[in-house]
Specification:
heterodimer, A: flat, B: 12 helices
């Protein structure tokens, strides 16, 4: 099934995208309202919240160029030392920019 | 929990304002992403109204870029739905992780604050909750800052996008990655978490290489979560 992008088609496509995205924003909350929150569920949630980020980052580091990898490494090191996100992020971006100039 | 401390789920106006303010720096970078999206949308042939409307209603950058890849005179509906769903499926997990606090809110507010959930404000909110601080101001106020920045950036990109020649050479594609990594590193660290993250990373990579496109985040996150549920911390 296809939708032509002429006329109102674009609007329909955007609305479909918006509804699908809204379902993802609301769906997790809705499903959890049927799950009793016990200690095991809490442990699942805590472990999963860090794992979401790690799962986003792992392919970024592996498929990325040297600039991407150095940016992530620099961010991690600066964050471990200073424990402040903004200097860590800035240092990471600067290191990617520097590597990519050469 | 003592009675003197304010409840963590509280959503006061000053918390929302404070969350807005705290997400301002990262919002500046989101403007740049938005510019890149606006430029790409213009090049794909979307009208100004459509591109801004998409950013306003969808507010999920990676899936919007993916939609542009499918764009043409005809757009295939089922691949579009699958792609958008798979890329945004991490929102399902974010909603689930916030649920222990969200359930304290009235239903309208519970779903209201989730309208603007995205990576950066969710990560900040979770970090606040895990430190025993209120997080919904960060989630909602910060979400509004990110949303406004995304719309503004998209609009700027449609009109002035060609001014930014090559954002990648300035490292701007790494902003969100570095931000999310700073959140991981700033979180609770011990051997158990480190092993959970390693399992999440390896599962994500396996899915990235061997499973259908865009499944890696959900696979990695669920693998980490399941290990956490099986190998529980000692109760304090």
């Amino acid at each position: 099934m296809n939708i032509a992008t002429a006329g109102y088609g674009t609007l329909v496509i955007i609305l479909i995208m918006a509804l699908v995205t809204l379902a993802t924003r609301w769906g997790g909350v809705f499903v959890m309202s049927f799950v009793p929150i016990n200690y095991r569920v809490q442990q699942f949630i805590t472990a999963m919240s860090g794992s979401v980020l790690v799962a986003v980052l792992a392919p970024m580091a592996v498929k990325g160029d040297d600039g991407a990898r150095l940016a992530l490494l620099t961010t991690a090191v600066v964050m471990l030392i200073l424990k402040k996100p903004l200097p860590a992020i800035t240092a990471g971006i600067l290191s990617a920019a520097l590597v990519r100039q050469f | 929990m003592s009675n003197v401390e304010p409840p963590l789920h509280e959503l006061k106006r000053e918390y929302i304002y404070d969350g807005f303010r705290q997400l301002m720096p990262i919002s500046l970078f989101v403007i740049v992403f938005g510019v890149a999206f606006g430029l790409a949308a213009a090049q794909t042939g979307l009208s100004d109204t459509s591109a801004v409307l998409m950013s306003t209603l969808v507010f999920a950058g990676a899936s919007q870029f993916a939609a542009l890849d499918l764009w043409g005179e005809q757009v295939p509906v089922v691949p579009l739905i699958i792609t958008v769903f798979a890329i945004n499926a991490r929102h399902l997990l974010m909603g689930a992780t916030l649920y222990p606090w969200l359930r304290e809110l009235p239903v309208a507010r519970r779903y209201g604050v989730m309208l603007v959930v995205s990576d950066a404000n969710w990560a900040m909110a979770m970090q606040a909750f895990n430190r025993g601080k209120p997080g919904f101001g960060l989630l909602f106020g910060g979400g509004i800052a990110l949303w406004a920045a995304w719309i503004l950036g998209s609009w700027l990109g449609l009109h002035f996008g060609s001014a930014i020649q090559n954002p990648v050479s300035f490292g701007l594609d790494m902003v969100m990655g570095c931000f999310l990594l700073a959140m991981v590193v700033g979180g609770k660290k011990n051997l158990r978490m480190f092993i959970i993250w390693t399992v999440a990373a390896c599962s994500s990579l396996m899915a990235y290489w061997y499973l259908p496109a865009n499944s890696h985040v959900v696979v990695g996150a669920l693998a980490g979560g399941m290990l956490g549920a099986l190998w529980m911390e000692e109760k304090q």
